[in-house]
Automatic annotation (TrEMBL), chain A:
Residues of the ABC transmembrane type-1 domain: 96-301
Keywords annotated in UniProt: Cell membrane, Membrane, Transmembrane, Transmembrane helix, Transport
Gene Ontology biological process terms, A to Z: transmembrane transport
Membrane topology per record: Multi-pass membrane protein
Domain of life: Bacteria
Family the entry assigns: Belongs to the binding-protein-dependent transport system permease family.
A GO-annotated cellular component: plasma membrane
Protein name: Peptide/nickel transport system permease protein
PANTHER family: DIPEPTIDE TRANSPORT SYSTEM PERMEASE PROTEIN DPPB-RELATED
Ranges annotated as spanning the membrane: 12-31, 100-123, 135-155, 175-195, 236-262, 282-308
Major subcellular location class: membrane
InterPro entries: BPD_transp_1_N, MetI-like, MetI-like_sf
Annotated organism of origin: Neorhizobium alkalisoli
Lineage: Bacteria, Pseudomonadati, Pseudomonadota, Alphaproteobacteria, Hyphomicrobiales
Location relative to the cell: Cell membrane
Automatic annotation (TrEMBL), chain B:
InterPro entries: AAA+_ATPase, ABC_transp_ATP-bind, ABC_transporter-like_ATP-bd, ABC_transporter-like_CS, Oligopep_ABC_C, P-loop_NTPase
PANTHER family the record matches: D,D-DIPEPTIDE TRANSPORT ATP-BINDING PROTEIN DDPF-RELATED, TRANSPORT ATP-BINDING PROTEIN
Ranges in coiled-coil conformation: none
Keywords: ATP-binding, Nucleotide-binding, Transport
Location in the cell: Cell inner membrane
Residue ranges constituting the ABC transporter domain according to the UniProt record: 12-260, 284-533
Signal among keywords: no
GO function terms (MF aspect): ATP binding; ATP hydrolysis activity
Protein's UniProt name: Peptide/nickel transport system ATP-binding protein
SUPFAM superfamilies registered for this protein in UniProt: P-loop containing nucleoside triphosphate hydrolases (SSF52540)
Membrane-related topology note: Peripheral membrane protein
Source organism, top-level taxon: Bacteria
Length: 315, 544
């Protein structure tokens, strides 16, 4: 991996974000929402609205508005929420933090479960274990989050009363309370991810187990377990990195439903509220932050891939 | 357990193996009787599907689930391998019997260093610690002729050449001083000169250790030069076995005779010399053609940094006369196929190609007339025939494009007959044909436009020797009938010396020299040409 390549990839991230910012800005321009009306309410006088538009720069040409917005953004200023009148940056980032906590816990749980499941399915290919794992994965893919979430809440919170049904508690305030509140959403999200990743691990491992080098290792007298551990898993698990990185994209978007059901104030929920309130600066900032997170995660995944597989040389 | 001098190391007695398939039972091996003694090299020769690899798996106890061993025994010393437990088999593999595989680039794990893969055998079977095994591995790599063993141990497979990797594989096969080693086509995937070096290494190590060796190959010429005894296998049965000289000098069985006759032999020329001396312009003249691969990286072009592109061809100049067969030989990566691609417009090139007096400087000059006259046949018919088209459809395309388009079905049938396939094959799909049949279809497609130059890019290298012989015979007949010129690209020197009028030798993108086929082995040839010729084993009993 050359410094040349790193620089190129970083430039690409900035380029991507630039294009995203253009699209986001364009979309908010065509939305039937007027920031001035939003702030002053529907019964404001035309004079007051005009005055506000003047001070907010809403009468300036679109490209000037975009320039101002981008310039402020580059200085770390995401603007002010029309709804709350608070600066957007801090609110958004703490929401992102909660979403990322949910996402990484879900990915962690998923990896712990999905990789062994995939391995078992691959080794016992065509046997009962394989069929059971496949069934679980297909169920996970087929059932939408709101179904699994509702069933989980009904069963574990409503009937058995083992876990709190909804809400969010900060782990710095009440650690065990936070965990209790996170268990259900994390499980619901993981179920869907497990399906992806265990299928992926299974098919990769099946392929790897049929390669010449696995046969060669067996014929050198290595035991089945050693061959699996030392020769097969590394090669079979590498592509999982890419899948997990792509799943982060799903998590940031798809998690909205789960955040909504469990009333977790994450970035998805912030965005929904903003869209409902036509809070344009918040929508713009939220989408941009999501795009940036996604780009960075994929960048890290690519780098990790190159570190783990010496054959890959980016230039 | 250990074998006494009079007792064979490996003794296979009346061994039969079946595979249960969806279409019934397939008898892979029938009543095999073979034995190998200490210090002996037994060559096992057969075409693809003859069961030679199945036998190797049987010995290594690496059989698929649908395999049924119906009779016989395989004795290693006094122990019958068929009755061994899984644990015994695992202990036996790599320690008492080991194996060298065909392609070192697929038989080594791409994500583990060469040292790790070599030393794990020593840890497993000789009970060394990792550190001891690493040191021992280094010594072994030095022993198999690797110049920088310490460095080689640390390298990953993709950082070593094919020859170096095969040396590592050989080192791990010899690592535990096994009683028997199975060599499964160990040089097929390597270049001519490298494979000669590997073969020399094998012979040397074999003589030194006296290990009983089973050398599996489809290459009779090669086996005749290395093995002491040969067994010929066909459709799961040993047709004939005996000392090398007997088998090759006077084969008793018809199949062995056929097989021996099919082996390319430079002393048996298949074309008449001197017929292609034409006056005036050659049919095609390639003038200073260079091909470069690669694109300037973004940042290098921004900063104006110098960037060296990969050289495919370096100012190649050659010509082919009307009706001439020009052979092009060289190792992989020498630019043979690159030239073929440049001439058919598949690669951009610099320089000039004169075709029938017309200058061609790039893709835009290659009009329908040029494409009609210049056709190409590729190595793998599987990849060059569309699997979803019937043979009739495949063959009708060039007829519609270049012909008058009338009576296509009739013409397709005629073409199939010309390449000696039944007319009814027009209704079949490629997967319903054998490898040789598919290549015949590819040949028919190339000849549909009645071309004047046909470029054959390694078209027989994926085929068995007897199929190769029939394809070559077909090509020579077509050449005589249409006075077509061939540019015949191959790495098989014995074959090209049989059929080419002149031979061009390429090395790393450069054209080394062009010489008449009959003079290619003269001592006046370039240094590289002589090394190439010297590296190729001639069939036993042949003199050139």
């Amino acid at each position: 991996m050359s410094p040349n390549y790193l620089l190129k990839r970083l430039l690409m991230i900035f380029y991507t974000l630039f294009v995203v910012s253009l699209i986001v800005f364009a979309i908010t321009q065509v939305l039937p929402a007027d920031a001035a009306v939003m702030m002053l309410g529907e019964h404001a006088t035309p004079e007051a609205l005009d005055a506000l538009r003047q001070t907010m720069g809403l009468n300036a040409p679109v490209w000037v508005q975009y320039g101002h917005w981008l310039w402020a953004l580059l200085q770390g200023d995401f603007g002010t929420s029309l709804r709350t009148g608070q600066p957007i940056g801090p609110a958004m980032f703490s929401a992102l933090g909660r979403s990322l906590l949910l996402a990484f816990l879900s990915i962690g749980l998923m990896l712990i479960l999905a990789i062994p499941l995939g391995i078992i399915a691959a080794i016992r290919r065509g046997k009962v274990a394989d069929i059971v794992v496949s069934l679980i994965s297909y169920l996970g893919v087929a059932l939408p989050e709101f179904v699994t979430a509702t069933v989980a809440v009904l069963l574990l919170a409503d009937w058995l009363k083992w876990l709190p049904p909804t809400g969010y508690v900060s782990p710095t305030e009440d650690f065990f309370g936070a965990i209790a509140h996170l268990i259900l959403p994390v499980c619901v999200i993981s179920v869907i991810l497990i399906a992806h990743v265990s299928r992926m691990v299974r098919s990769e491992l099946v392929d790897v187990l049929h390669t010449d080098y696995i046969r060669a290792a067996r014929l050198k007298g290595m035991s089945r377990g050693t061959v699996l551990r030392r020769h097969a898993l590394r090669n079979a698990l590498l592509p999982t990195i890419t899948i997990v990185a792509l799943d982060v994209g799903y998590l940031l978007g798809g998690v909205i439903v789960v955040e909504e059901i469990f009333a977790i104030p994450g970035i998805g929920r912030e965005l929904i509220v903003a869209i409902q309130a036509r809070d344009l600066p918040v929508i713009q900032a939220g989408v941009l932050i999501m795009a940036a997170t996604y780009s960075i995660v994929n960048f890290i995944a690519d780098m990790l891939y190159a570190v783990l597989d010496k054959r890959i040389q980016y230039d | 357990m250990t074998s006494t001098p009079e007792m064979p190391v490996l003794d296979i007695k009346n061994y039969s193996l079946d595979y249960e398939t969806a279409n019934g039972t397939f008898h892979a091996l029938k009543g095999i009787n073979l034995s190998i003694s200490r210090g002996e090299i037994l060559g096992l020769v057969g075409e693809s599907g003859s069961g030679k690899t199945s036998l190797a798996w049987s010995i290594m106890r690496y059989l698929s689930k649908n395999a049924r061993e119906t009779s016989g025994e395989i004795l290693l010393g006094a122990k019958n391998l068929l009755t061994m437990s899984d644990a015994e088999v695992e202990a036996m593999r790599g320690q008492r019997i080991s194996m060298v595989f065909q392609d070192p680039s697929t038989s080594l794990n791409p994500t583990l260093s060469l040292g790790t893969q070599l030393s794990e055998v020593l840890v497993r079977h000789r009970g060394l610690t990792r550190k001891q095994a690493w040191a021992e591995g280094e010594a072994m790599l030095a022993h198999v002729g690797l110049k920088t063993p310490a460095d080689m141990m640390r390298r990953m497979p993709h950082e070593a050449s094919g020859g170096e990797k095969q040396r590592v594989v050989i080192a791990s096969a010899f690592a535990c001083n096994p009683e028997c080693i199975i060599f499964d086509e160990p040089t097929t995937a390597l270049d001519v000169i490298t494979s000669r070096q590997i073969l020399d290494l094998f012979v040397e190590l074999q003589a030194e250790t006296g290990v009983a060796s089973l050398y599996i190959s489809h290459d009779l010429a090669l086996v005749s030069r290395t093995a002491s005894r040969v067994a010929v296998i066909r459709r799961g049965e040993i047709v004939e076995q005996g000392p090398v000289q007997d088998i090759f000098a006077n084969p008793r069985e018809a199949y062995t005779r056929e097989l021996c006759a099919a082996v390319p032999n430079p002393s048996r020329r298949l074309v008449a010399d001197g017929v292609t001396k034409t006056e005036g312009e050659p049919l095609v003249r390639v003038e200073n053609v260079s091909v470069h691969y690669g694109r300037k990286p973004l940042l290098a072009s921004l900063t104006g940094k110098a960037f060296t592109r990969v050289k495919g061809n370096n100012a190649v100049t050659l010509s082919v006369n009307e009706g001439e067969i020009l052979g092009i030989v060289g190792e992989s990566g020498s630019g043979k196929s690159t030239l073929a691609k440049a001439m058919t417009g598949l690669n951009p090139f610099e320089g000039k190609i004169w075709f029938d007096g017309r200058p061609i400087t790039g893709l835009s000059d290659m009009d329908t007339a040029y494409r009609k006259d210049v056709q190409i046949i590729f190595q793998h018919p599987d990849a060059s025939l569309n699997p979803r088209h019937k043979i009739g459809e495949i063959l009708s395309r060039p007829l519609k494009l270049y012909g008058d388009g009338s009576n296509i079905a009739q013409q397709v049938g005629d073409m199939l007959e010309k390449v000696r396939l039944p007319r009814t094959h027009a209704d079949r799909y490629p997967h319903q044909l054998s490898g040789g049949e598919k290549q015949r279809v590819a040949i028919a497609r190339a000849f549909a436009s009645k071309p004047r130059l046909v470029i054959c890019d390694e078209i027989t290298s994926a085929l068995d020797v007897s199929v190769q012989a029939s394809i070559v015979e077909l090509l020579l007949d077509l050449q005589k009938a249409g006075n077509t010129a061939y540019l015949f690209i191959t790495h098989d020197l014995n074959l090209i010396r049989q059929i080419a009028h002149r031979i061009a030798v390429m090395y790393r993108g450069d054209l080394i020299e062009i010489a008449p086929a009959t003079e290619i082995d003269s001592p006046e040839r370039a240094d590289y040409t002589r090394r190439l010729i010297a590296a190729v084993p001639l069939p036993a009993g042949s003199q050139v």
